[in-house]
């Protein structure tokens, strides 16, 4: 019988369940550790030695933070939780990769109304898988139990990544000029942006997440929508090693804002980019969304990656060499556009002049 005394548990915070979740994912997290990681899981801060990088002329740290967004709603509705962790990592490491940086370590934040250890462990396992794919260490994180703040059985995710590049090798787009070519690398699907619109289309057309995709792919609609964001770190870092410095003039991660908002971020003044629509195969999920939602082409390119989610900018002279090296790496790639005079904008056209 209760003596009427209040406890943290009676307020809705179960420390024991939180500890159980840590026990479930401890080994998985440890599998991400690089040799530079100092200490063990459970400290107040993650420690990472930079001794290996003392040979750099001018080491520069690049950092990035992001979340998974409303893609989580599909995960909540279906109980498929093992992919959103990779999304979280990808959204951060692909951003810092655009500067030519090698991701070093990652931290996560998981917030929920009530900790359910198995759910937390499934998500963290996905984060660990993403870290392994990116070659970075998961050195810490926070699991926050906030009773009454989130809906029951829902949670939010945020991530933070740090990478390093030698300043002479930093890629920032400053050398981009008219006549340069854009090379696009395929996405794995929707990645992790535009899901407010995706969810609206699914609801409005009455599609069932548990049923096979309307376009005939041998997956449920939920599995197709939850395909994890591709991580480009390893192939791009290998490519940079194979080329003279600054052969790659700029790189773009196509996330929220699509082509129209992201590509101009690396353009010098008085330059624009012409994108040739139809110069790569657009995955069926995008065609289905556009048709079911009656979405204009410009809106598709402002919201989604449409099958290309990482873009390289190279000179016309270096284009064939870069494509050859991508081929050596087994990387599918497409010439999707070119740089021309303009006002930091993306111009969509059917073909390049």
Structural write-up:
By secondary structure, the protein is α+β, with helices and mostly antiparallel strands. It has 2 domains: 15-169, PurM-like, N-terminal domain (60s Ribosomal Protein L30, Chain: A, 2-Layer Sandwich), CATH 3.30.1330; 181-349, Phosphoribosyl-aminoimidazole Synthetase, Chain A, domain 2 (Alpha-Beta Complex), CATH 3.90.650. Helix content is 32%, strand content 23%. It is built from 11 helices and 12 strands. It has helices at 15-30, 72-78, 84-97, 117-134, 195-205, 221-225, 233-242, 258-262, 284-293, 297-303, 319-328, and strands at 37-38, 47-48, 59-67, 102-112, 137-145, 155-166, 181-186, 250-253, 271-276, 308-314, 334-341, 346-349. The strands form 3 sheets. It has a 6-stranded mixed sheet. A 4-stranded mixed sheet has the order 3-6-4-5, covered by helices on one side. A two-stranded antiparallel ribbon has the order 1-2. A hairpin with an 8-residue loop joins strand 1 and strand 2. Helix 1 packs parallel to helix 4 (117-134) and helix 3 (84-97) runs parallel beside helix 4. The longest helix is centred in the middle third of the chain and has 18 residues, at 117-134. 39% of the residues are buried. The mean pLDDT is 94.
Short overview:
It is built from eleven helices and twelve strands. The protein has 353 residues and is an alpha+beta fold. The chain has two domains: 155 residues, 60s Ribosomal Protein L30, Chain: A (2-Layer Sandwich); 169 residues, Alpha-Beta Complex (Phosphoribosyl-aminoimidazole Synthetase, Chain A, domain 2), CATH 3.90.650.
- Strand order, largest beta sheet: 8-10-7-11-9-12
Mean pLDDT: 94
Could you name the CATH class of the largest domain?
A: Alpha Beta
CATH fold group of the largest domain = Phosphoribosyl-aminoimidazole Synthetase, Chain A, domain 2
Number of distinct helices: 11
pLDDT under 50 segments (min length 5)? none
Strand-pairing-aware structural class? alpha+beta
């Amino acid at each position: 019988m209760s003596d009427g005394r209040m406890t943290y548990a009676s307020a809705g915070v179960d420390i024991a369940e939180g500890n159980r979740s840590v026990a479930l994912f401890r080994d998985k997290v440890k599998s991400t550790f690089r040799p530079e990681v100092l200490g063990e899981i459970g400290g107040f801060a993650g420690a990472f030695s930079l001794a290996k990088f003392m040979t750099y002329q001018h080491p520069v740290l690049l950092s990035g933070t992001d979340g998974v967004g409303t893609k989580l709603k599909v995960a909540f509705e279906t109980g498929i939780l093992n992919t959103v962790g990779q999304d979280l990592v990808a959204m951060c490491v692909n951003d810092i990769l655009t500067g030519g940086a090698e991701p070093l370590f990652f931290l996560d934040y998981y917030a929920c109304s009530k900790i359910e250890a198995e759910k937390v462990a499934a998500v963290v396992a996905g984060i660990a898988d993403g870290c392994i794919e990116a070659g970075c260490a998961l050195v810490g994180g926070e699991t926050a139990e906030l009773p009454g703040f989130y809906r029951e059985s829902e949670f939010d995710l945020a991530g933070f990544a740090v990478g390093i590049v030698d300043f002479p090798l930093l890629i920032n787009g400053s050398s981009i000029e008219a006549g340069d070519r854009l090379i696009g690398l395929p996405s794995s699907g929707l990645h992790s942006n535009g899901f407010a619109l995706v969810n609206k289309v699914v609801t409005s057309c009455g599609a069932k997440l548990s049923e096979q995709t309307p376009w005939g792919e041998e997956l449920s609609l939920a599995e197709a929508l939850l395909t994890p964001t591709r991580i480009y770190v390893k192939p791009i870092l290998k490519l940079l090693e194979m080329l003279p410095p600054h052969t790659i003039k700029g790189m773009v991660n196509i996330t929220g804002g699509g082509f129209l908002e992201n590509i101009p971020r690396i353009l010098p003044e008085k330059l624009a980019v012409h994108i040739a629509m139809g110069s790569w195969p657009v995955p069926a999920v995008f065609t289905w969304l556009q048709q079911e939602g009656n979405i204009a082409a410009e809106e598709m390119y402002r919201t989604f990656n449409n099958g290309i989610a990482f873009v390289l900018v190279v000179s016309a002279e270096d284009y064939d060499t870069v494509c050859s090296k991508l081929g050596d790496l087994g990387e599918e790639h497409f010439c999707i556009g070119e740089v021309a005079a303009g006002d930091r904008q993306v111009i969509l056209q059917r073909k390049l002049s």
